[in-house]
Design goal:
Layout: H1 2-5, H2 11-25, H3 31-42, E1 52-55, E2 61-67, E3 73-77, E4 82-85, E5 90-92
Antiparallel strand pairs: 1-2, 1-5, 2-3, 3-4
Helix pairs in contact: 2-3
């Protein structure tokens, strides 16, 4: 059902939404947290240099360094090192 309702979202964001809904239904996640996740995941990803970002699951945090010509985001981890990511794979932090 989640795939149908949120079919216009990139697959990775749809997968995260499906996981949040499943956790809510099973009683592991409260409604407020699930709603926050849904709102965050449904916003179109648009990042500029200096923006704070995190991975979808929140396991890594950092700052956008630049937008690459191919549309990917170059970002620096808080602990050092740079990574490339698609905009839909990151959330504002």
């Amino acid at each position: 059902m989640t795939d149908y309702v949120f079919g216009e979202l990139p697959s990775i964001r749809r997968r995260e939404l499906t996981s949040a809904v499943a956790h809510f239904i099973s009683g592991v996640l409260d409604r407020g947290i699930m709603e926050q996740m849904m709102v965050a995941l449904m916003h179109e990803a648009s990042f500029q240099p200096g923006d704070r970002v995190k991975t979808l699951r929140g396991s890594a945090h950092g700052v956008v360094v630049r937008n690459a010509a191919d549309g990917r985001i170059v970002w620096r981890l808080d602990g050092g090192g740079e990574l490339l990511a698609l905009p839909e794979d990151l959330l504002p932090d």
